[in-house]
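Q: What residues go here?
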């Protein structure tokens, strides 16, 4: 499945690679943010998504609900501290553990909310164009960027088409597509383009904002 890059249209205000890099920077900074700043950011991202009943955000929450519950329980029962339920004594959760587990769950919610905003802001082809732009320098190291982009496109395509309760079906479609078939003969056309001054400006603002939050958290 060949991937063809096209020049980016001028109607798009920001390059998708810029938005992806901002989300990656945010994801890397999440563990170092203060609890208050993290809570505010999680609320700013999550509440509008919940009000709009964003399918991307609800799907991410549904798929990670057991991970969040596990995080809270593991920290609650493995972290020493004052008993949250005195009747259970040493066999009960600790207050410090519940707070630590809740903090980890809050970090995950903030991360997923940011990802949901990213997914809602860009269609699949634009996300792939951004990833292709970021991966393109790896071609000098011998990485087949076109093939990697085709695999990502097919994975997203079949994952969207798979019905709930049949999560393994997309793997069968993906395998058959690379072994040969109609999808293997398709051509993916991406508007790769390049970065312009609005991209550099928003990236600079994002770096400065994250640096401020990190310095504030370390103070």
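A:
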């Amino acid at each position: 499945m060949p991937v063809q890059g096209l020049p980016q249209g001028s109607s798009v205000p920001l390059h998708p690679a810029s938005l992806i890099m901002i989300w990656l920077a945010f994801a890397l900074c999440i563990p170092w943010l203060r609890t208050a700043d993290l809570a505010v950011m999680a609320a700013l991202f999550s509440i509008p998504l919940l009000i709009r009943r964003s399918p991307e955000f609800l799907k991410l929450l549904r798929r990670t609900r057991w991970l969040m519950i596990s995080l809270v329980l593991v920290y609650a029962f493995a972290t020493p501290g004052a008993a949250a339920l005195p009747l259970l004594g040493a066999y009960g959760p600790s207050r410090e553990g519940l707070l630590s587990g809740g903090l980890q769950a809050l970090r995950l919610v903030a991360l997923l909310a940011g990802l949901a905003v990213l997914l809602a802001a860009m269609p699949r082809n634009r996300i792939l164009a951004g990833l292709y732009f970021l991966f393109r320098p790896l071609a000098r190291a011998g990485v087949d960027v076109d093939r990697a982009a085709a695999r990502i496109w097919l994975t997203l395509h079949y994952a969207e088409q798979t019905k709930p309760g049949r999560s393994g079906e997309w793997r069968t479609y993906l395998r058959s597509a690379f072994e040969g078939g109609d999808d293997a003969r398709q051509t993916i056309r991406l508007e790769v383009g390049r970065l312009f001054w609005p991209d550099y400006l928003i990236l600079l603002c994002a770096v400065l904002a994250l640096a401020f939050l990190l310095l504030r958290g370390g103070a």
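A: Context that may help when evaluating the design: The chain has one domain: 3-218. Residues 3-218 form one domain.
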